[in-house]
Design brief:
The complex is a heterotrimer of chains A (291), B (219) and C (224). Chain A has helices spanning 2-27, 46-52, 78-90, 104-109, 124-129, 170-178, 190-198, 209-218, 244-259, 262-275, 280-283, and strands at residues 54-59, 62-63, 67-69, 75-76, 93-98, 115-116, 130-132, 137-146, 162-166, 183-187, 204-208, 222-235, 238-240. Chain A is α/β, with parallel strands linked by helices. In chain A, strand 2 and strand 3 (67-69) form a beta hairpin. Chain B is mainly α and 219 residues long. Chain B has a single domain (3-217), classed as MetI-like (MetI-like fold). Chain B starts with a helix and ends in an 8-residue tail after the last helix. In chain B, helix 3 (65-75) crosses helix 4 (85-110), helix 6 packs antiparallel against helix 8 (183-211) and helix 7 (169-180) runs antiparallel to helix 8 (183-211). Chain C has helices at residues 14-48, 52-67, 70-85, 91-116, 120-128, 133-164, 175-185, 193-223. The longest helix of chain C has 35 residues, at 14-48. Helix content of chain C is 79%, strand content 0%. Chain C starts with 13 loop residues before the first helix and ends with a helix. In chain C, helix 1 (14-48) packs across helix 4 (91-116), helix 1 packs antiparallel against helix 7 and helix 2 (52-67) crosses helix 4. The chains are: A alpha/beta (291), B mainly alpha (219), C mainly alpha (224). Chains in contact: A-B, A-C, B-C. Chain C: Residues 22-216 form the ABC transmembrane type-1 domain. Chain C: Pfam families: BPD_transp_1. Chain C: It comes from Lachnobacterium bovis.
Amino acid sequence: MKKTILSKVKKLTSLLLIGLMLTSVFTGCTTTKADSSNKKTVYRTLKEIKKSGKINIGVFSDKSPFGYVDKNGKYAGYDVYFANRIAKDLGVDANFVSVEAANRIEYLQTGKVDIILANFTVTKERAEEVDFALPYMNVALGVVSPSNKVIKKLDQIGAKDEVIVISGTTAETYLTKNYPKIKLQKYDAYAEAKTAFENKNGVAWANDNTEVIAFAKENKGYTVGISSLGDNDTIAPAVTKGNKTLLKWLNDETKALGKESFFHKNYEKTLVDTYGADYEEILVVEGGKVK
Amino acid sequence: MDKDILVSYIPLYKNALLLTLKIGWQGIGLSMIIGLAGAAVLHFKVKVIKNIVGIYVELFRNTPLLVQLFFIYFALPKIGVNISAEICGMLGIGLLGGAYMIETFRSGLETIPVMQSESALSLGLDKRQTFLYVILPQAFSAVVPGLTANIIFLLKETSVFSTISLMDLMFTAKDLIGMYAKTIECLFLLVVFYFIMILPVSIIGMIVERKTRYAEFGD
Amino acid sequence: MQSLGIDVLLKGSNFSRLLQGLYVALEISFVSVTISILLGLIVGVLMTLKNPILCFILKIYLEVVRIIPQMVLLFVVYFGTTRVFGMDLLAETSAIIVFVFWGVAEMGDLVRGAIKSIPTIQFESAYALGMNKFQVYVYIILPQTLRRLIPLSINLITRMIKTTSLVVMVGIVEVLKVAQQIIEANRTTSPNAAFGVFGVVFIMYFLICWPISRLSIYLEKRWA
């Protein structure tokens, strides 16, 4: 890290000029230079990744038990377990990039990561922006609330109550679209949303049901009043739109891993402590095939 | 850039602007009150309180607003102090701004030589008149540039509100990018709206600065 | 009441990770501030030259920096450059670009102020002695300006450090992000960790910025 920063210093004078130009583009108002027609490809092909010896994978760093950093500073969780396997099978090092829910698409579209493996739910809107590989987990939306005031139906939420969501998640889009009257309190990071929820800043927290179930299991005094809301979706790795070589490799990998029940093993390593054995068949998607 | 998208986003940005302005200016109001009170305490060298004000100024001038807000919003509830995001934003701006305003007001009062109030008194003005007609106008003109700079600084600092779930301009942009990935349009509107919010302050500040310059001594 | 979560920092490598996070933030600040001061000196001198076109451009530059929050610039540069120019910037690089863009304006303005504060008579006497413009600046004006500038530039360092806390927003794992990660990883065992950990981060920033700003005030008083 030290060296990369220092080596950048030399280029800075020229980059500064670009910064100046950019601001003039944005402040010049009349010049709409945002022409997407002659854009270069931002992604790296499978070959380029292998050649560089490093794959950049965007994961959460504050979403236990899917993607988080343990007390020794190592990335861990269900997504990370898969990511490590991908890197191993590609024969490269995994470089984890900490992302937030709201900027996952951004990271792919700007080529800052090769793969997003951050509990990324497959939706139609997102599929227009990025390419999803085969799924590796099931998901729906869920709502958790304090046990002394459990919210079992969304119409229990009063006009003044606020529901905590994380910016850029499917819960946010779903509630905004289908329940525009519910007031949302939005956070960037999982850690912040959970802390705010613990601090009683909202009456409930809506998110992927996996996540809210985990929260209620790990923290006393909370109950998942609504365990399945909206459509049943899947979670899959995503790559930059058009990155066909990497996408194909990922799909083949997921299928191949199915033969050795990799995701069941992954569940038993990373999720079983939180969910117990009951959820294994419900959550895990093996070999990219949804039952 | 897609014009339709720009137009459809404008109402959202407008709401965000109003919220940012509301909380921002409440905070700035608070910071001025803190600033005046604190400056008075320092100017008249009130015992003990003077030291507390000093510690407060150092603490808040030497830590980032982001960290202050995180502490107030996420950490304080753990010891039972729970405040809403809006109040927290206002407090954050108020406390941070207060630390800067104190310095500004204090140095404003200090620019006026003691001789001035002495001469005014000897000319037969009473204390109230001296303060109103001699000290205040001059202190005001000395304070205006610093005050404008502080206000602009604080309005800019509101951009960190987004981290405590306040739907300010920054948050709206980030949120829209997260949901619909129309990055260029969102960032463009973001910059435009900050100009709408801060440019008037900058211009008014310049005008007031010019108008009050008459009170300056010489030059 | 349970523990306030400071004990969390003693577990594993948590505390040293927090320090590492702080180091990342500081490194970005120091690189940015060094470049800002160097370029700022040039820009400041340019501002005092009475070239109308240059003046106009610099004025716009200053006003842009004055109005747009650094966080917005950070987003524009980090996500916008790839969109508009198709080039990919590291988060660290974008952060340094933005802070330099901002710092140069600030520094330039300080330099301009310091030069302006030198009485015209000094310029005039120097010219009268037969020096050219370059000589006047190098031998007469700059040495005096520098003395006034040093405390102000030191002050810029603390402002840079404080502003660097924003880089958490573009995904750089610095001290605040590490704090969040620690809180998250220990949520079940110590639910109050937010207090201790954010409190420690607050104190860390203070312990770094405070001595620097005291130094700046001390020098200002001494050299005034």
